Amino acid sequence: MNILQLCLKIPDNEKKHFVRLIDKGRTDTFKFIVMDLVGNSIDNIQRRSHHKRFSMATCINLGLQTLEGISDLHALGYLHRDIKPQNFTVGLREKSETIFLLDFGIARRYTEKGSKAIRLPREIVRFLGTVRFASRNCHRSREQCRRDDLESWMYMVLEFTDCSALPWCRTVDRKVVCTQKEKLFSGTYTKHIASLPEEFRRVLHYINELGYQSTPDYEYISNLLKRGAARSNVDLTEKFDWIKSADESEVRIFSPTFHCKSAVLGFCTSKSKSRLQG
């Protein structure tokens, strides 16, 4: 909520990947927020797509837009800490080619309030987020920083290329998953990841070199992806796969069937929870 409220005070070009907060309030039963309506999550779209993978043009364009959203969030002084395809969604109508970042439930300020100074790391931090996309620091119960959001982002981008691209995609044991992530960053690549443009591996290396206090060079990462696209003859002016191949049946799948311009989310208050449970 704080993040969406902060977005009301910044220029439009710095918040294009955040949904617009329209209203908020509470009743005796619920707290609620009203925000712009958006479409399906990237995860949902990928699972319904052909072979559960995107074209390289869509993968890289998704990578560029989601990276920009994360960069804008970091500029506000916050970490997301749960970057994954489920938390990015497509816009509707005139914003159908814009990707939005959602769910700031475990976001945390990484700067001191009213300052750009980085907060001191806590000694032990409980595991938060999603095992599949969590950073190695999250697995190690260490304080997260901007690098950790980028690490999770890179796992997500790799998965855009194929739903089973991550070697740990079907593993639930957190220790095993962390070990496999360490192998990835040490240069042990699967056949699929090794087949991707070299720039993907350069991004992995760059992220791995960042420290707790480091300010990531988002433009450098973006340029690496664009360079990989150019070397691989990937046309980044192409529309997203789901837009390019859309027919009437797909439109019904990917778009809400009702005509509404905003969404209302309700959250039970403690009083209403007791009523519901009683």
From TrEMBL:
Residues 1-243 form the Protein kinase domain. InterPro entries: CK1_Ser-Thr_kinase (IPR050235), Kinase-like_dom_sf (IPR011009), Prot_kinase_dom (IPR000719), Ser/Thr_kinase_AS (IPR008271). It holds the Pfam family Pkinase. Its EC number is 2.7.11.1. It comes from the Eukaryota. Keywords: Kinase, Transferase. One of its GO terms (molecular function) is protein serine/threonine kinase activity. The keyword Zinc does not apply. Transmembrane segments: none annotated. The keyword Acetylation does not apply. This is non-specific serine/threonine protein kinase. It comes from Ascaris suum.
